[in-house]
Protein 1
Amino acid sequence: MAQDPLTLYKLIVLYMLDRVAFPLTQAQVFEFILDKEYTNFLNLQQAISELTGANLILAKSIRNRTHLELTEDGRQTLSFFSNRISPSIKEDIDKYFKENEFELRNEVSVYSNYYKSTSGEYEASLVIKERSIELLNITLSVPTESIASSICDKWEGSSQEIYNDIVKKLF
């Protein structure tokens, strides 16, 4: 039985999100699927849009990244149709995660965002997560948007060092 290619792309995305215990960024999903040449950008964008519209995945924008998470409906849908993904594609995905899990997890476990507070100052929110547990959540109030933005930019590269310093000083 032939299947609609768009359905296959959706199932690949669902399978990818099911194989990890953390959200993936949309860029991470795109990078893998486009590098493997399973489809093109427009088809993949349509697949993700339809998955989001059907509430099979959640898309959360955090600063300049879109994080994708599998919903329970998405997990259930995948359980019904995962046999429509070829074993070779599943093997490619599993191998990719085995080889890149640390980097992928690290990329989505550290994030930051800033916003204007009701007091008129800006608040920079800095977070480190491990699975669904927040290991560290710091909010800094600063006078300008440029300072808040700079703090968020620096957090990406310094978070591990800052976390280690805090743990050392407190324990």
Protein 2
Amino acid sequence: MKITTIIAFTLVIIGSIVWLLVGLFNFNPVELIFGMGNMAIVSRIIYSLVGISSLWLIFYWAMYHPFRAID
């Protein structure tokens, strides 16, 4: 499970950098690398993997770092 979490964390970091570039500069490196139109399926797979990774990290955090009372 540790390797899954490391991969998920890496994908989420990369995804957040991509969204930073889209937000600040209107530049999407995923579309630049994997294309648009007929090749959009690859971009959708990449975005789906980033989304699944973020869900995994939320699950991981909830399981191993539950809400604690503030002392």
Protein 3
Amino acid sequence: MPFQKEPSYTHGTVDKTAVVLVNLGTPEQPIVSSVRSFLRQFLSDIRVVEIPRFIWYLILYCFILPFRPKKTMQKYEMIWGREGSPLKVHTAKQAGLLRTYLNKRGHDVQVVYAMRYGQSGLPQVLRELKEQACERIVIFPLYPQYSGTTTASVFDAVFEHYAKVRNIPELRFIKHYHDQEAYIDALKESVLTYWANHGRPDKLVMSFHGVPKRTLLLGDPYHCECYKTARLLAEQLQLSKDEYVVTFQSRFGKAEWLQPYTAATLQQLAEQGTKRVDVLCPGFSSDCLETLEEIAIEAKREFLLAGGKEFHAIPCLNETPAWIHAMAEITQQHMMGWPTMAPSMQHEARKLAAQQSLNAARRLGAEQ
């Protein structure tokens, strides 16, 4: 197997550090051909659909790809902005803000974004980082809760790319941060800010993306991590068990998925007389098709038709300062020990470390 050609090397080149934010991906345009291409790549991933390949490809190419792209395109048309796909726009802005935040903290690092499927794909971005002499790379999937269908698929793509590379950089992978204090704080601030401006609901619905139930039975920790996120956030918001509910959305196919389902729960709440619900999607770092169309439009309509009076979709974390801070905290933990400080900051950092060491020694009784 031939390896990719290495970029030309000049002695004295300073090795760089990079952080790669990785999100799911999006069609290039809200047109049928673009959506079909995106769905073909996404639904061909064995991590996403674990049905035997022969059977699944028969279903995919004969029943899904000929018909589903048109319906999906119409949904994308409803949320597409002047800047393009909301998912891509938010992810790009997060990368820029995180880079600025880390630079202000003295870290001389690159921060870029990549998509698992579609344009700005991981292989392309990793090749560009190789050209820029990035010898230390943090892979930061924008999925707070680990799942084999999402985070592991990102890792697969990284491993597959570097299997063809001769000189592999040092790599660190962020597996999950579903219970990280800074992430929970960012969610808390987002909810409280929304409630300060719009009042409080009768029930807070925390809706996570669904996965087939069999993944839980086979050992995927996603279900448990979603519930832990919800519990920690509810504690921070001082909610009783009757004031919130955890649900799972985006069911696909006829197999049983994680329950309770978001749509069915919202209908049940409306029929039981719940007047107002607020829906938060803690598993999505950026607003996208699943939050802007499936929740803010489709779920809202179903809730109101079932007798509900007021429906609020709380925006995802997007570019909120608390989320950028949380991303920086998580990133710094995973860069620990790497020489990321800018040259102008290294001397001051060493002086501070030496002074802290001296102070600690004096507290233990060391002589002046």
